[in-house]
Amino acid sequence: MQRPLFIYVHGFNSSPASIKAQLFGQYLIDFQVDADYEVPELSHWPEQAISQLETIIAANTDRTILLIGSSLGGFYSTRLTEIHDNLRTVLVNPAVRPYALLEAWLGDNENLYTHEKYLLTRDHLQQLLDINCASIKDPSRYLLLVQTADETLDYREAVDKYPHSPQFVQSGGSHGFDQFENLIPAILAFSEGRVVLPPADPLC
Question: Angle, nearest 10°, between helix axes 46-58 and 72-83?
Fold first, then answer.
């Protein structure tokens, strides 16, 4: 049997150095999980980001792939999961309407980790619109993890977008998803087709 592949799909102005990406990778090492793990550094252009992910997926068509999509990465992961049958996706505080949200970010931007400077344009927004998925074909292929005190996104948009998918909705927290490490066992279970969620105890 082929080892499963986990792909962490980072969000807007993030990188493979993001805390959640690092926590997940370290967990796989510490607990000797028999799996492969990739965290591509995605372009700020949506078309290019999708193309980068498609390249990895195309090279692994014979194995199970789990995407872990954070924020904008959740939007990208949804697009890919709707196209490819061998994908499952865990959505972590996912962006549902980034083409609207990022209007406020038009102009000069800088990646928080790499310090790459670039101009966010309406072409970026159009590319996001072009890959939007209006509906979900198989809700069972998604696991939604959200925290209600997300200061960047309205968690209710994600709850409404994936109403028939298993959901972990936790009061409090943040956009970065506090105590993410506590959900890693649930992510690993979901990669095997199981839904095993801990209690969603409120975070102060």
Answer: 50
